[in-house]
Amino acid sequence: EVLSLLQEKNPAFKPVLAIIQVSRERGSIIDEILKINEDTRVHGLALQISESSFSNKVLNALKPEKDVDGVTDINLGKLVRGDAHECFVSPVARAVIELLEKSGMMSFRNAAIFYLLVFTHCIDLSVGVVSGCFSLKQRPPKLRRLLPLLCFPPSDIEISRAQTPKAVDVLAKEIGLLPDEIEIYGKSKAKVRLSLLERLKDQADGKYVLVAGITPTPLGEGKSTVTIGLVQALTAHLNVNSFACLRQPSQGPTFGVKGGAAGGGYAQVIPMEEFNLHLTGDIHAITAANNLLAAAIDTRILHENTQTDKALYNRLVPSVNGVREFSKIQLARLKRLGIKKTDPNTLTEEEMRKFARLDIDPSTVTWQRVLDTNDRFLRKITIGQANTEKGYSRQAQFDIAVASEIMAVLALTDSLTDMKERLGRMVVASDKSGQPVTAEDLVSMVLIFFQLPQGTPVFVHAGPFANIAHGNSSVLADKIALKLVGEEGFVVTEAGFGADIGMEKFFNIKCRASGLVPNVVVLVATVRALKMHGGGPSVNPWGLVFLQNIPLVADGCCNLQKQIQITQLFGVPVVVALNVFKTDTRAEIDLVCELAKRAGAFDAVPCYHWSVGGKGSVDLARAVREAASEGSRFQFLYDVQLPIVEKIRTIAQAVYGAKDIELSPEAQAKIERYTQQGFGNLPICMAKTHLSLSHQPDKKGVPKDFILPISDVRASIGAGFIYPLVGTMSTMPGLPTRPCFYDIDLDTETEQVKGLF
């Protein structure tokens, strides 16, 4: 009937099904699949392949729209969400689902989940329904226990919209803010004024807690969710004042593969749409300021290349109504040059040349343009190709906005004065004599406005990534929160990705800048990630490891144990928070907690905040409170006075477990230049993949005896760190084959955004 309807509109339409049959493992399977994917004559593709060829990589090579058996993650994901009308479902599976549904034994969605469990873990199986219970027969291996099927709670966005946030002025009053200390921004957000810190300067700080994690899967293991759940438990269930301090989400991962960063389930920041989409515009303001500076650099090079000294000087210091005078920024430049004159007409020719020419060496420009979008095609570009640029062109690149040094400055500053000084110190290039050229030589950074923490009892300020930046929310947010909660209260902040990246930078960079000392580290783990580290399949949105596998979890705990050891390097007690999923079994949960405590964790606690909110993290809150009372023996990992190479080597060996490091010629030259320029005493911010302790994302668990390659070294002098690039690390992420934005839409009737998670 469907075919007849289609052919009425297009008589020439003729559906074609292709079948690939492989009796033994062959490397060309994927090549054949890709050919058929692009063949417009073929509408459907079925695979008949051997067990040895059966892998996620092979199955997901299929285009979902040609996947007639519904084996790709995308079709399985739609099936498990109950969206069978939007995906392919194999005839056998559909028959099973319809029979189960018609028998009244289970809903369509749970039947779909049952099918997914069977399909992803069983080959050559038969299904029997006996007295309302499922019995599975599988040959081989021996079948492990099937988990009970649980009903799905509402989606994150449904939970968010079901809540009515307090009016922000009411909330501000509850947490001790005065009316003139906030600037209300809409109904649910407000900016907090810096005058608050002066008013509370004599108030004792509360306890300082960092949430870090094990080496994550591409989806993340729920550090934001744990942070929110812990704060809810402390405040609502233990009656302890507490605040969460989080980073602002970038649109890159929000529209890419990871999704939003508001937490999830009943432990999330609300309203999640406002949190995940633009917030109060900080990232866009940083983008504009960053790109203004980039434009100023290239424009200055162009004008210096095409004008004489005198013409350039006259345009930089023009006569207005017969009066010529320097601006304040220009007077500051004169002072840095040692020219003690304030009248533009009194400079000698040599002084005019020295003032007017920055003599930027184009090959040394390190300041890149930025965009808050994952766009792999901007990783290398050529600028200046229009005729109006008079032949001046050069290779350049875009970084993602949250990798901008301005974002790092915003996160690490402790006052407006400090921020202004840091912005001016940012090194953008070197001149032809090898001396640094800074932002204050080029442009005023007044375009950056100071966006202070806002939200409900969550302060959201700054959003640097942890793999290509230092990965922590702002120092100011933490300092304000620590004053507000009082001496017995808790401030819980989060460091991006695994403890080897975000936590290491929190201690060695953020704590150096803030002077704050953490009391406890909460290390987040999940059973699914541990199974991956134990040798299980790579975790993706719908190919989860559902069945109990004790040996796999035990083997994967090596990564958890290593991250505990990394935490202990800094002398801070660590509590492991096992973020429990519905598919985790009691045996797996108990095993992880036991191995974590054996590895030196102060305590290890399963957490259920995703499904029940703060109530599910009360045990974690008690463990954190007890650990905080034990005291911290905090110490830095290295002395900043060590040579740059030694500091890099210390992190590589002590934290990542590398045998040694290997510097590229370019990296070696940069290190020598920065040392000669006087920047050798800065801390290190490693830009490294977050998916492995090593530089290779596919190396899970605890890689050993590897050499860490340093391909390049850059300097963020305003932010106050040197950042080496490890391996092929890129500062502009790319989009996956199926980005999240396929699911994000606007409902024109309700005027609400759909598909965020």
Automatic annotation (TrEMBL):
ATP-binding among keywords: yes
The protein's Enzyme Commission number: 6.3.4.3
Enzymatic class: ligase
Gene3D superfamilies, A to Z: 1.10.8.770, Formyltetrahydrofolate synthetase, domain 3, Leucine Dehydrogenase, chain A, domain 1, NAD(P)-binding Rossmann-like Domain, P-loop containing nucleotide triphosphate hydrolases
Any GO molecular function: formate-tetrahydrofolate ligase activity
Domain of life, per lineage: Eukaryota
CDD domains: FTHFS (cd00477)
InterPro entries named among the record's database cross-references: Aminoacid_DH-like_N_sf (IPR046346), Formate_THF_ligase (IPR000559), Formate_THF_ligase_CS (IPR020628), P-loop_NTPase (IPR027417)
UniProt entry keywords in alphabetical sequence: ATP-binding, Ligase, Nucleotide-binding, One-carbon metabolism
Known pathway: One-carbon metabolism; tetrahydrofolate interconversion
Any Gene Ontology CC annotation: cytosol
GO biological-process terms attached to the record: carboxylic acid biosynthetic process; tetrahydrofolate interconversion
Signal sequence, start to end: none
SUPFAM superfamilies membership: Aminoacid dehydrogenase-like, N-terminal domain, P-loop containing nucleoside triphosphate hydrolases
Subunit structure, interactors included: Homodimer.
Family: In the N-terminal section; belongs to the tetrahydrofolate dehydrogenase/cyclohydrolase family. In the C-terminal section; belongs to the formate--tetrahydrofolate ligase family.
Identification of the protein by name: formate--tetrahydrofolate ligase
Source organism per UniProt: Equus asinus asinus
Encoding gene, per UniProt annotation: MTHFD1L
